[in-house]
Amino acid sequence: MIVWINGAFGAGKTSAAYGLIDLLPDSSVYDPELTAEALARLLPQKKLAEVTDFQELPIWRRLVVDTAAALLAELPGVLVVPMTLLRQEYRDEIFGGLAARRIPVCHVLLAPEETILRSRIAGRGPSADDLDSGERAQARAVEHIEPYRAALGWITADAHTIDTSALTPYETAERIAEAVRGGAAGVCEIVQTPEPTAETVAAGVLFFDEEDRVLLVDPTYKPGWEFPGGVVEPGEAPAQAGIREVAEELGLHLTTVPRLLLVDWEAPRPPGCGGLRFLFDGGLLSQEAAGKLVLPDAELRGWRFVTEEEAASLLPPLRHERLRWALRARERSTVLNLQAGVPVG
């Protein structure tokens, strides 16, 4: 199990983490800042110059999952991870990757009052929380207060919050340990989708409103939006998989088989395994029917109808190309054969 300690820069995450390992048997600490330090030495400066924060690097997010999993394989028990996560899509990617490996995560937020947080930042020296030190570390911590405040909406809905305004680091660790033991800091409810080990077959179903906008859903377990649908089970027809997934994800029960729009071959590209992707036309979804959609909280956090242009900012590039050609196939009443989002044949 992982106890992920979140909070603003300077909230005392690392101090609490090292206090916590004295209170939870068979526990150890993994600080993802160490992974960032290693990447700063391994990656070329040109690559590092493309980002303003190491969390923007996909390789860092992937290595955090891989490193945590490897440590738990060597040191079974509780892994305590003190790390600020302010972007929900990064939380989705990292926690989703851990869930796929059947690693439960207890998400804890340390939340001192802002005046106290600022006072602590101003009065502290270099700490293990920071790669920088002195004035640079203080400036970095202050710069992140506003993004932290903006992220509190989703973090407090997701994490067990502890007000540390009047607590010492060890008292904070005691509160975390009590919450973990008593179940107050429950396992983060995120769908546990196993990572594929070979090429997969997946089926998505597109629905449209009266303005011909397409329905997209927002998964909790990975970044970016998606089409309703999922992986085809062994022995299952792709269209039937789409019907099943739509019922599970949206509460919609299709009475007819949706029309095929395209088949796309996605080449394996680590860490993805690629495979066949089917997209079907689910037809018009009335305003009344849309109002009755029921989403599984552990898998999807929301849905919306979007234009083709709006979808470009929500979908990963390959998925957006797939949508673009699916819309052309729908307009022409045809079926397209794609490879990596490009029509062939």
Automatic annotation (TrEMBL):
Pfam families: AAA_33, NUDIX
Cofactor list: Mg(2+)
Classification via PANTHER family: GDP-MANNOSE MANNOSYL HYDROLASE (PTHR43046)
Xref: PROSITE patterns: NUDIX
Name listed for the protein in its UniProt record: 8-oxo-dGTP pyrophosphatase MutT (NUDIX family)
Gene Ontology MF annotations: hydrolase activity
Alphabetized UniProt keyword annotations: Hydrolase, Magnesium
Coiled coil: none
Domain annotation Nudix hydrolase: ranges: 198-328
InterPro entries assigned to the protein according to its UniProt record, in alphabetical order: Nudix_hydrolase, NUDIX_hydrolase-like_dom_sf, NUDIX_hydrolase_dom, P-loop_NTPase
